[in-house]
Amino acid sequence: MNWFMKNSILSLLGLVLLASCSKTKDPMPKGIDAIFVGSSDNKLYAINSKTGMKLWDFTAADAVHSTPVLGNGLVFVGSSDEKVYTLDIQTGAKAWEFAAGMRISSAPFFADGTVYAGMGNTANFTSKLYALNSVTGAKKWEFTAEGLSVSSCTVVNGKVYVGGYTNIYALDAKTGEKVWEFATGTGVDSSPAVADGMVYMGSNDYNLYAVDALTGVKKWQFSTGGEVTSSPTVADGTVFVGSFDRKVYALDAKTGTKKWEFRTDGPVLSSPVVSNGVVYTGSNDYKLYALDAKTGAKKWEFWTGNRIQSSPVASDSLVYIGSLDRKLYAVDIQTGSKKWEFQTGGSIYSSPVILNAKGGTYSASVSGLQQ
């Protein structure tokens, strides 16, 4: 897999990431309808989510493949210039920056006044995850893993879950001490989803793994026909994930039994999101798909001008997706028709994040259930 394809885990990722959607309860400024997304043109954009007009942009020294995260009136994002940036959500003014010493394409995670960011490639072929004070940027702790990783982390019940070069790690959120690790067959670029005491994560060994969140003991694995760099989403007892074998899978969350599969015309690196019984995901075949979550039946498809490795995010009426054609699209959630598009100066691997006028935020996060 080439380097740019790895940067799609926003997770990824995770979006973030990581790869799924949830609504945060963090206090945020009200009266703003905005969507935030990074681009290979070195910029993070804030765009009016209703009209597609630019509100502001921030320029880093290198590409912004990282998916941003919002918290306490701030935007946190990583960059390939080896820094983590914190910006004012209304103006884009920089509050602080942290020199991470590695190119960052994973999504940060914000919880309880701490920003967790990192997992990139350093000069000595290691990856680091940092815990930073969200107000000052001061480092609380760092965790070092061998090898390159672009996995975005998830924080649940006092533990940080993240993928490493060949492992899935659970860390103590306060200290960074390793609680357990689980070895897969090869590299882990997928980002974890945590639900009902289970951690779900894909691997480049073609498998999706489900492991116990407390012990790291494997509960089941499901084999696909290609690398699983897409990050799983968990909603209503079902795990949804994409694969390089061009398929989107729906699996029973407890047993790993396949419920359905849907074949696209290209590898699926995009991470699915679920909203009101519909699964949205992109594909390298240039298309955004809307699928029935229970049956996998296609509701509609939307064409972009290039591969989609960004992950979508849905509001009440629109679903947003970035494409390697350098554009961010807003698509009608019911019909799949385009409402607007925003042109950036570079390919979009970053996944968009929404802030609505009521102060609610939607992003790639722990659970794929759109709230």
UniProtKB/TrEMBL annotation:
<dbReference type="GO" id="GO:0043041">
    <property type="term" value="P:amino acid activation for nonribosomal peptide biosynthetic process"/>
</dbReference>
<dbReference type="InterPro" id="IPR018391">
    <property type="entry name" value="PQQ_b-propeller_rpt"/>
</dbReference>
<protein>
    <submittedName>
        <fullName>PGF-CTERM sorting domain-containing protein</fullName>
    </submittedName>
</protein>
<dbReference type="InterPro" id="IPR011047">
    <property type="entry name" value="Quinoprotein_ADH-like_sf"/>
</dbReference>
<dbReference type="InterPro" id="IPR052091">
    <property type="entry name" value="Beta-ala_Activ/Resist"/>
</dbReference>
<dbReference type="Pfam" id="PF13360">
    <property type="entry name" value="PQQ_2"/>
</dbReference>
<feature type="domain" description="Pyrrolo-quinoline quinone repeat">
    <location>
        <begin position="33"/>
        <end position="142"/>
    </location>
</feature>
<dbReference type="InterPro" id="IPR002372">
    <property type="entry name" value="PQQ_rpt_dom"/>
</dbReference>
<feature type="domain" description="Pyrrolo-quinoline quinone repeat">
    <location>
        <begin position="227"/>
        <end position="343"/>
    </location>
</feature>
<keyword id="KW-0732">Signal</keyword>
<feature type="signal peptide">
    <location>
        <begin position="1"/>
        <end position="25"/>
    </location>
</feature>
<dbReference type="InterPro" id="IPR015943">
    <property type="entry name" value="WD40/YVTN_repeat-like_dom_sf"/>
</dbReference>
